[in-house]
Amino acid sequence: MSRVAYVNGTYRPHGQATVHVEDRGFQFADGVYEVWSIFDGRMADFDGHMTRLARSLTELRISIPMTRQALTQVLKETIRRNRVRNGIVYLQVTRGTARRDHPFPAEGTPPSVIVTARSIDPNKSEAVAAKGVAVITQPDIRWGRCDIKTVGLLPNVLAKQAARERGAYECWMVDEMGLVTEGSSTNAWIVDENGKLRTRDTQANILKGITRTALMALIGDHDVELDERPFSVDEAKRAREAFFTAAGAFVMPAVSIDGVRIGDGKPGPITTKLRTLYLDQARDEAV
To answer: CA-CA distances (angstroms) from residue 229 to 87, 208, 238, 281?
Structure first.
């Protein structure tokens, strides 16, 4: 089946979906994005992603392109046209198309809106999670507003590629104090050597992950002690368990960091429990 994309008001065959050469997303990475997981044709953590989208647009002073109701319909229609039962739907909003110049274009320039959707085999993700994955670390070289979900992801791309070249799934980035900030496309967590669940607070200029937020709410309901503060690479390597969260990875166990085995080298009981709890809730509450 051929895929279909939504581009600025029109549904097009995926291979024919294009934006203008002077779209500011292409020229300047002047845009934002969101990704929803899809379970049985429905979007998980819907409200959280919508709220973060509005915040990102506001922070960058990009006009909200359409009403929430209209955008919801576009997302659902793109999922429907691509016949996605399980997978992801991707939304990108840029400042629009204008003559290439660094200042904002003239007021009234319409934002560009692009939506794509694709299927992902859930069995593959479960098979990966059952074994756990490797993580590497490297210095965090990103800009100072990582709390905004922009499309300016070159440092993240380089980090992810470094992970791939070293046979790992993810790269955790590290600040000048040796503390883990977050992954190239994920939030980082550990169960430390004292048994406390830890993840960095979002006041530290990291992305407030929607899966992270949903998981924290679940933790509060299931008697798991959470210590929301940073941890060092050394602490992570001594941890009982480690994992990361994201819309595509859900709750993914990390069983080694920079080649150092975490715990017994297998997904730990707390990580496994949290993954099950999150997936059950995400499926139940998807819209």
So the answer is: 32, 14, 16, 25
Phi and psi, residue 160, nearest 5°: -65, -40
User: Which of these, 119, 241, 244, 132, lies nearest to 180 by C-alpha position?
Assistant: 244
The 10 Å Cβ neighbour count of residue 197 is 22
Q: Give the pLDDT confidence of 13-65 residue by residue, as tens digits.
A: 999 999 999 999 999 999 999 999 999 999 999 999 999 999 999 999 999 99
| Annotated catalytic residue 149 | yes
Burial class (CB in 10 A: 0-12, 13-18, 19+), 112: buried
Burial (CB count within 10 angstroms: exposed 0-12, middle 13-18, buried 19+), residue 280: exposed
pTM of the model: 0.94
Out of 149, 196, 237, 273, pick the active-site residue.
149
Alpha helices in 4-153 (DSSP H): 24-28, 46-59, 68-81, 122-131
